[in-house]
């Protein structure tokens, strides 16, 4: 089996091996993965963190040995905590990285970092502080950064930065955690999931105090949450139908 690491700031993960294919997620600096299939210009990969699969351009990652891969799977996680920071590369160039980049794999890239980071699991109350860092981030299908993010990428990154693991898609995240029977039982940091007319879960957000929710819809925004769902304060109407509330922490 072959292995790789993301050695660039942000790399698209695509549904098919083509630049024109849909971006289904992103790799951030330092992410590890296994290579499932090799083609001339593309590799199909499986991310170590959440098991998500997709295609990456062969020019946008660095192949590593199994020994190095296993070494870094055993290291304590470490993530950058500023919206934007810089890595110092081998040839003394600066490489910009964004919030949530993996730094525990920096040794294999022979890079250095002098910025702020987090290594330990944080308290549940810190989830909201982290979520607010993404406020007004534009919505981007498949995005995971402060420059563009989707609803489940937002919840996953907020939880990841606090030491808690979520799967990638909203429907996958909805299989995790403990179901709450009533909205009144929810605490700040719990997740609310929403479905479409077919009953498929398509949206997720993080519950705040006083019946509000922060979620990515057009941008990362704060709206009212009630028994029916999300009431968009700009549009003055409900935009998402509540399906279930779950406690992950």
Question: How would you characterize this protein structure?
Answer:
This protein has 249 residues and is mainly β. The chain has 2 domains: 2-118, Roll (SH3 type barrels); 126-247, Alpha-Beta Complex (endopeptidase fold (from Nostoc punctiforme)). The protein has helices spanning 66-73, 106-109, 126-133, 151-161, 170-173, and strands at residues 2-5, 10-14, 23-28, 32-38, 42-47, 53-57, 62-64, 79-80, 84-88, 94-98, 112-113, 117-118, 144-145, 148-149, 178-180, 191-195, 201-207, 212-217, 219-225, 229-232, 237-247. Strands 16-17-18-19-20-21 form a 6-stranded antiparallel barrel. Strands 6-5-4-1-7 form a 5-stranded antiparallel sheet. β5 (42-47) and β6 form a beta hairpin. α3 packs across α4 (151-161). It is globular and about 55 Å long. The mean pLDDT is 95.
